[in-house]
TrEMBL record:
Protein's membrane topology: Multi-pass membrane protein
Record's keyword annotation contains Nucleus: no
Spans through the membrane: 57-79, 118-142, 244-263, 284-304
CDD domains, A to Z: TM_PBP2
Subcellular location as annotated: Cell membrane
Identification of the protein by name: Peptide/nickel transport system permease protein
Domain ABC transmembrane type-1: 115-304
Any Gene Ontology CC annotation: plasma membrane
Amino acid sequence: MNTPDNRTATGAGDLAGADAAAVEPGLAAASAEVPKESQTTYRPFFKRVLAQKQGRTGLTITIVVLAVALLGPLLLPWATGNTATEFVTKPFSEYGLFGSDNLGRDVLSRFLAGGLTLFVYALLATLLGMVLGTIIGMIAAYTGGVLDSIIMRLNDVILAIPQLVFALLAITVLGPQGWVLVTVIGITHAPRIARVARSATLGVITEDYILAAEMYAVPRWKIIVRELLPNITGPLSVEAGLRLTYSIGYIASLSFLGLGLQPPAADWGLMINENRIALSIQPWGVLLPVIAIAVLTIGTNLLADSFARAVASTSVENS
């Protein structure tokens, strides 16, 4: 026989069981209603870039122009019937699809052959600047102290000199050669990249895995290469896109001024300089390289912006 106390305990247990039975389906239903899209999933960096409309647009534009620059020399002379240096008719006449240039050479042939050198030089200059700037910036940030101050003050001195003026002086002294263009532009890029690398490294060196590596007496160069460098690739990739854009503009500008590739080489910047005197008569010798350089610059800028947004979204998710 149940006593009042037993009945009370039994009733409380039944109510608790009923409440649990009522709550558990509610929890199950609530968890089932959570959309899968709300769950945080890791996406690789390149997929984050392609998820953006401007990233896809920039990549498409860049690939198209690069395809013309890289494949153009391979298509000559089968695509046009002429080489880039062959004299085919009188200057600034209607020949072929886009006419002839100032010396009677086929404009389309020279356009197809002129993009490769511009892109290769810009890529090499950017790569040189990225390597130098990243090493300098990481060493300055990780070492700190007096060495950091000396490196950054030297950086400031170089930054005070306009890049184009520095390139003009160096090319005037050493001559307009390809390796000079690459070296000068790469060196002038390095201080700006070093500032970015230093800032990114300062945000990483206080992390626990860096302190743990130091505690186990891991050599500093291994910490820099294995621990620091992989964790600052996001900001560096953004800076690489910007530097590539600037390299294209600098090399084209120097070629336009006659300090880049020399005739009879085919180069987009040189084409603009050679044919500008007859812009109103035969505009294609100027318009084709101008459009190509402008489109390539827009494409790399869009990619750089997409890289920046992808890095920002990664930082937000990690926080």
